[in-house]
Every structure is written in structure tokens, then in C-alpha cells.
Amino acid sequence: MTKKLLLLLTAALMAAPAAAQDLGAPVGEGGPVETVAVEGEASDGPLRGTVTDESAWSDIGIAIPAFATDRERATPANEAGTGALGREISRVITANLRNNGLFKPVGPDSLPQPAFPQITAPAYGTWSGKGAEMLVHGYVRARDDGKLVVGCYLYDVALQDQLVREGWVVGPADWRRAAHKCSDLIFSRLTGESPFFDSRIAYIAETGPKDRRVKRLAVMDSDGANHRFLTLGSATALTPRYSPDYSKILYLSYVDGNPRIYVYDIGTGKQTLVTENKSPTIAPRWSPDGKAILYSMAVAGNTDIYRVPATGGQSVRLTNNPGIDVGGSFSPDGRKIVFESDRSGSQQCYVMDADGSNQKRISFFGGRCATPEWSPRGDQIAFTRIAGDFNVAVMSTAGGNVRVLTKGWQDEAPTWAPNGRIIQFFRTEKNSGRSGIWQVDLTGQNERRLPTPVDASDPAWGPIRP
Amino acid sequence: MNTKLATILLLASATSLAACAKKAPAVLPPPPEERVTTVQTTPQPQPTGPTVGTQDHFAAAVGSSTTIYFDTDKYNVDSQDAAALQAQAQYFARYPQITFTIEGHADERGTREYNIALGEKRATSAKNFLTSLGVDANRIAVVSYGKESPVALGSDEVSWARNRRAASVIIN
After folding, report:
1. So what's the ipTM on this one?
2. Inter-chain contact B141–A213, Cβ cutoff 8 Å?
3. Does the model's pTM come out above 0.95?
């Protein structure tokens, strides 16, 4: 302990702010996925009404047989070729729809394999005989340039009609994104909700005993795949936030011995301090347009909230109060900020205008209100409700209609799915201090733990990818 | 240690930081006999004992007073903390070449970011108290670890009380 501190202090005294000695190799993001037209009968528009009753969703049986391929070809995406890749894509889609408690998908491993021509002309009789109401078909085609074209079709078996279709061109390394795009297409068409599967999560990977926990910055796809560690673990990393365009991550690191917020550029692997200041900075947040950053800074022991342009420059102090003011989450239109403050004597949630004016307390439910996060839809705020145990709860933007969604001993730090339907958070176990990322939907149903290679905390769900 | 913790837990300290700071001068003058006692119990540089400028030397001199403890969500210095900080101040007056860091900590029953802010407040409280006792502020660094660095590993009141702390650590 002492040795570590001395090292940290030495680093601090050297005052090399962006020393970055804890960073791993940079990992570029894939960039936008190209959408292409795919063959098929013209859709007749919405023949089926949007499903809004959530209980009805899970009753919809969806058959998702293996995607076909026009011609078996080698691809770096799957050592067994494009046919095997088509089966993998169907498995990913099936897992997406099942894991999130939506629908009753049946995957490729218990279904017949459609031939390539059947992708645009389904054998409806086969599928209605299996009790499927919805049918997903698709294909994989390897182009000569090595890229993959993935087509995705959704059919209503009873109506014998195509509901929607779309296609994407992806590099072999990005094949899972095509599966997520197809999942999103199905989900959106059947529920009327915005997509969320093709998104990523930044979080903190935790290992080691409770008093010597190693905390590393890590990222993964929304389903836990494509996992990467971004820092090496020699310095504690905490509270990451993806920028809206996924090009950067804000996070806290003790790399110079003190808690400081860094802006990490994922593509170049370079990072800079959010503000050149000797005071500790914590709790970073992006504005919805990615142009501004909120951070909290302790000056002479007292923490207040500041805003700074993402490109650097002058910071503006938004709160000025002897209590602890920390965090902050913008409304989707960028005009308001919800934050927490203990100015009343305990942690409570407050809303202010984006310039810091009109600060008003909104939480009056009796317990404490911490880590508020504004829903991407704008109508609700998720927060850590502290009343004995820690639970994840939601309330209206005025503080009403508090609904507790989880029942763990310590459930903390909610983050919204891009479509505002699902909330992730981290759950810490009593005594052992083991942590994991969990998610629950807005109805309080379908709670499940996300698969992560090691313990995990501080999930931060990014927006839908382009 | 346990007795002290029990005492801490029993203390319904509602005293504010300002009140404590006002109270401080009353107990500020170090009694001469206490100084003599400290000199006698402080191991002089010997081949076998801890050397000046190490944490061991500091701990041998002030005992459990290297660390002060706080009530839940509180950051004020109570009378027991004041006594510990006075012992620290005497040590640092005796060894003016020593610089040190005050590490602020919180128990696990708080949210992560708030706890870092709270640890910062606690460490700063201790720093301010020491400077009021004449320790040069330039010798004191402050860092908060929030709830990330517990010393007691249980999820119970006794463990939490041990983790709500500000620990002075010698820089060498």
C-alpha cells in the first residue's frame, strides 16, 4: 500500500498530466455500416399493427433459421466459410431476442435450413406447421473485395407477407454488427420502438481481492462480444462514458496519483486531461451532441460541477455551493441537466438549466437520490435510490412516479439503452465486494446479468452505431 | 483499536467543522510534559529502529493517531480526531523536513463518485485542522480514494466505521 502510494505521489509530483502509462494498444472503431438494397417482394407497408402491449411481445414465436449463402466461400469471419457464418449470424440474432426477454425466438440449431432461393420466397407451409408466427430469413454473400453482404428479411407467416427487409455491407471483422442490425430491424418493426442492439458499452473490469482491486477500462458490444481491455490496470480507472460518435471515451484515472478525468481518443490511443488544473476532477459526462463535457472538480475540498467545450478551452462553473455537487446528465435536447447534490443534508437529485441557472430539487421520496441519468427519450430519469439498500429506480423529470426496478443489496449507477427501454447498472455483493453488470427493462422485468470475462462495474451504454 | 471504534460509533457527533475549528485552539497548546513523553517514546535514529521520514517512524511516534475516523456522510473533525491530529501536528513540528499525504476514504455504502467527493472533503478537513495547528499547507498533499481502497473488508457497521477515514501517509 505504502509503496504504491509513494509511486503515485512521485508521479503526481512530476506533474506529467498525460503520461498515459496505463494505456493498452489503441483499438479503432469500425465506423458506419453501409446499407444496401436487397432483393425481395416489395413490402406492402405495415400490414400488422405496432405491438405496444409488452405482454404480447413475448408470445410472438419467431423462427430464425440459418442464413443461407449464394455460394460457399472462404471468409476471415468464419474459418468454415460463408455457410457456417450464416448459421452464426442467426444464432446471434436468436440470442439477442431471447436474452432481452422479447419474443420467443427459435434458433437455427433446431430448425431446417432454407435454401438460398427460399430467402426471398419462403416455404410458408413449413413454418406455419412449426407454430412460427414470424419468420426471419437472411443470406450472406462474400464479395470479391472480401467484404460481406448480409440481407435480412422479416415475414409474417400467417399473412404470408414480407414485413421488412434490409441489407448491409460489412468487413469480415464486423460480421456481428450485421447480426445486430438485423436484430434491430426485427425489434423495431415488431415493437415500434427505436433500435438498441447495435451499440457498445464501456465499463470497468474488476479483478483481485476487495482491498487491492484492479480496475481497468474495458469495452464490449451490447451482447458482451468483442470485449477489449483499454487500460493495463497499473492505475485505477473508473466511470467511463462513450462519446456520442464512439470516437472517444471520458474516464477517471489515478494514473498520475490523483483522480483526474481524461479524454481518451480510441482511434489514436492518445489521451488528454479534460482540464489543465491541479484540482481533482471526477464524474465526466458528454452533452448529447458531443460538443460539451461536464465534469466535477474539488477545489479546497468542495466539489462543484463545471462545463467545458469538448475541444478544450474555458471551463464554466455551473454550481457554486458548499455541499457536494457531482455528476450531471443532460436532457436529450441538451437544455437541462439533472445532477446530485447533498446541499440539503443528504444526496438528492436536482435539475438545472444547461447554463447552471434555475437549480431545483426534484427528489422528495424519502430516501436518497444519486447518479441520475436522463432517459434518451427525455421523459424519465433513472437513478440510484438509497433507502437502506441501493436500488435502481426511475421517476418522471419532475421527480414523480418513482418506480423501483431492482432489489439487490447494492445496485448502483444506471445507464440507459439507446432506445430508453432497458437500463444497465452494476450490482455489488455484500461482504465479498464482487461486482457485475446487470440489466433490467423499464417494466422491472427480464433482469439478467451480462456476461463479462471478469467482474464488472460502471457500465456506460453508448448510442446506436451509425 | 476496537475500543476506539466503539467509542466512535457511540459518538453522536453533530458538531460542525466550523464549531470544531473554533474549539481547536482551546486544546492547541501542547502540554510540556506530553512533549517530553513523546520525545522519550519516539525511537531515536538507531540501526534497528525505523528511520525518520518513513511511515513506520511516524506510526511508532503517534500510534493509531496516523488515521482519523468519520461518521456516515460526515467530514467534521470531532474531539477524538482533534486529539489524533494534535499528535500528528507535534510530530510534523518536530520533523519539519517531512512532507505527507492525507488520504480520504469512504465506506462502501455510498455511490462511487459521491464517495470520491466525500473522501476529498474528509482529507481536506484533516488538512485544514493541521494547518490551523501550524503545519505548513505546502507540506500536505490530499488525495481521495472514495470507497475504492477499504482497509476493513466486511459489509457491516464496524468495517464501515474503519473505512470512513483520513490517513496521513509520509512521502519519502
Report:
1. 0.90
2. no
3. no
